Amino acid sequence: MTTPLTLDTIGQAPKALLHDHLDGGLRPATVVELAAEHGYDGLPATDVDELATFFRTAAHSGSLERYLEPFAHTVGVMQTADALHRVAYECVEDLARDNVVYAEVRFAPELHIDGGLSLDAVVDAVLSGFAAGEKAAAADGRTITVRCLVTAMRHAARSREIAALAVRFRDQGVVGFDIAGAEAGYPPTRHLDAFEYMRSNNARFTIHAGEAFGLPSIHEAIAFCGADRLGHGVRIVDDITIDDDGAARLGRLASLLRDKRIPFEMCPSSNVQTGAVKSIAEHPFDLLARLRFRVTVNTDNRLMSDTSMSQEMLRLVEAFGYGWSDLERFTINAMKSAFISFPERLAIIDEVIKPRYAVLIG
């Protein structure tokens, strides 16, 4: 008998996560404790529940720029090696409890050097936290693999330096590179030297595109920068026309992305909060899934969106009537699109994801 789809049962399913920001997933209690330990006095509240409410409501702004403002507080308490290690460790712990079996967690090292750490020291601390978290999860009977993406801020001028950091740590847990931040006025082509460096070193990268800005952002990310994946990419819907008879006609860019199997790192709740879409029910995720684009489900910022992978999947189930086979497909889409090696991807798909979904499907 097929297992009913509820938050609890979805919580039992194995999940793969490609788009999760380390500084957007802290526990509210950890933010309060780290602020007290390190003398950060800028928090809008020191009560844990009040602070959680602040992050949730401040992020639900309808604007990407305003959505990013609360990150000043999480980044503010992540300026020491101990703090970075703790946040990374707890990130793995929280994901493992939600039965995430593979995750790529991203963060911007350049935002964590105000306390005097070097970029290398920042990455070392985070990778150490991830490794310790994996070990603790395994001891608790939960196997999880966590890898890192280093991100450059698109409004800054350090992307080439951060790309080199990604390559330098590629054998120690960093599997790729990304640019993030406000899209308007900061096109990905401003960072061509970083992407060229990644390609010249046979390294992988994703680009935030098509979230707060339209098709030109996606076009540049693919045509000029050569992105392996797209962060969000919701505005690709602008290149898809639905005829009166319900048939979909794809423009040249949309066709190219589907033909090349470019993965979309879609983050439904976050996209509603930033105003990229009006509601989950109006999210283009379902249209793209039905048209067989390679869509994946992601959290983006678990603290800001008050969410988890299980919650994101449940919201899609409630909006679009998905079943277990759909959730399995989205999960396999993510594993196929991961930046680890092919044998590693295949092992997780064949030995973890498919067997455990078989039990849930019945």
TrEMBL record:
GO CC terms of this entry: cytosol
Keywords: Hydrolase, Metal-binding, Nucleotide metabolism, Zinc
Cofactor(s) demanded: Zn(2+)
Cofactor note: Binds 1 zinc ion per subunit.
Positions with a binding annotation for substrate: H21, D23, G181
Residues bound to Zn(2+): H19, H21, H208, D300
An example Gene Ontology molecular-function term: adenosine deaminase activity
GO BP annotation list: adenosine catabolic process; hypoxanthine salvage; inosine biosynthetic process; nucleotide metabolic process; purine ribonucleoside monophosphate biosynthetic process
Enzyme Commission number: 3.5.4.4
Catalysis: reaction(s): 2'-deoxyadenosine + H2O + H(+) = 2'-deoxyinosine + NH4(+); adenosine + H2O + H(+) = inosine + NH4(+)
Site for Important for catalytic activity, residues: H232
Catalytic residues in the record: E211
Record's keyword annotation contains Metal-binding: yes
Pfam families associated with the record: A_deaminase (PF00962)
NCBIfam families recorded: aden_deam (TIGR01430), PRK09358.1-2 (NF006847)
PANTHER family referenced in this protein's UniProt entry, alphabetically: ADENOSINE DEAMINASE
Role, per record: Catalyzes the hydrolytic deamination of adenosine and 2-deoxyadenosine.
Similarity-based family: Belongs to the metallo-dependent hydrolases superfamily. Adenosine and AMP deaminases family. Adenosine deaminase subfamily.
Protein name: Adenosine deaminase
Gene, per the UniProt record: add
